[in-house]
Design goal:
Strand 14, helix 7 and strand 15 form a beta-alpha-beta unit. This protein has 8 helices and 17 strands. The protein is α/β, with parallel strands linked by helices. 21% of the residues lie in helices and 25% in strands.
């Protein structure tokens, strides 16, 4: 006995609100599909929103991303589900049933006018994840000024009222539109979609190697992006996190978190990432800046990527040292001493 095929559903779920998910949602929406764009944080944009410039053109990252975010927010065929996660998927291609958990924002989106009063009055300061922990934000916050949706959220882990009911409540008291609702709870939503696009983005390596945990002057690539950014914690001024003084030398260490005994693959983006940061760092420095990239193999496999690499070396004066880092030792002045093995086997 043949089974009767179920009618297909014409909507699509895109999981992940980074640049890949945003572009996928726009392409699908323009093709006539209704799109649910799901993001677990309070706003779409992902890692690209944290970046300062993009290679190989050195265009502003937000100049590229912002129009796409605005279009997503206004498109009639796109419904943005922030602070949401997939709990369960059932069904088959053409007709999926997806159970979504929507975590509370504690602020009603329809009432919030993004005036910032809640953040202004909130007494609780915490590390700002968008600025990679290099700055602080309030427990009532927006991720970044161009966030979509441009609605404030309250961090449940750090909100004084939500952890100790009856204390504080300044956000609700001073909100001019009574948008704050500290009684909100998790809500489950069931969606029926014909297809699911998984665009969950990249994972960031969180190692403790090379004095990362021991010195504030050892930073990750994303942390350095926020240092360079005009909207970052230092307003685009190139300074050391330890003392706020401008550095005279910066070293980039490649293949950290990849091509080792744990992860035997190349992430394929870090070479160009480091070259771009070295070039932009020189542009941000008022004094001559010595920039050196310590690498095993230079992989510039993209349109005009090799030209960008050559320009960085020949025109910008970025030094490239094929080597293996042996050790990093902190110095009394907050600086760092690098020991590395060169191609001929010498330790420098």
């Amino acid at each position: 006995m043949k089974s009767i095929p179920q009618p297909r559903v014409g909507s699509v779920l895109v999981i992940g609100g980074g640049i890949a998910g945003v572009q996928a949602a726009l392409d699908l929406a323009e093709s006539g599909f209704y799109v649910y764009l799901l993001e677990r944080s309070a706003a779409i944009g992902g890692v690209m929103a944290q970046l300062d410039k993009t290679f190989p053109t050195n265009d502003c990252s937000m100049c590229i991303l912002s129009p796409k975010l605005v279009e997503c927010g206004r498109h009639l065929n796109i419904e943005i589900l922030t602070l949401s996660e997939v709990k369960e998927v059932s069904g088959s291609a053409g007709r999926f049933r997806v159970k979504i958990v929507r975590h509370p924002r504690y602020i009603e989106e329809t009432k919030c006018i993004a005036c910032g009063t809640c953040a202004e009055k909130c007494p609780k300061k915490v590390k700002d994840e968008f600025n990679a922990g290099l700055a602080q934000r309030k427990a009532a916050y927006i991720q970044y000024p161009q966030a979509v949706p441009l609605k404030y959220a309250i961090d449940a882990k750090n909100c004084i009222w939500l952890n100790k009911p009856g204390r504080c409540g300044a956000c609700a008291k001073y909100c001019p539109t009574q948008a704050v609702d500290l009684t909100q709870t998790d809500q489950e939503v069931m969606l029926e979609v014909g297809s699911i696009v998984v665009a969950t983005g990249c994972g960031l390596s969180q190692g403790t190697v090379f004095q990362y945990a021991g010195s504030s002057n050892v930073v990750t690539s994303v942390e350095f992006e926020r240092i360079l950014s005009a909207t970052g914690p230092y307003r685009g001024h190139l300074v050391r996190p330890s003392d706020g003084n401008p550095p005279k030398k910066i070293a980039w260490l490649q293949c950290v978190g990849s091509r080792d005994r744990t992860n035997r693959y190349c992430s394929s983006v870090c070479c160009m990432y480091a070259i771009k940061e070295a070039v932009i760092a020189k542009e941000h420095s008022a004094e001559p800046l010595d920039t050196a990239i310590f690498f095993m193999d230079m992989r510039t496999s993209g349109k005009d990527f090799e030209k960008y690499y050559r320009r960085a070396e020949e025109e910008s004066g970025v030094r490239f040292i094929r080597s293996r880092i042996q050790n990093i030792s902190p110095l009394e002045d907050g600086g760092l001493l690098l020991q590395y093995a060169t191609e001929d086997g010498h330790i420098s």
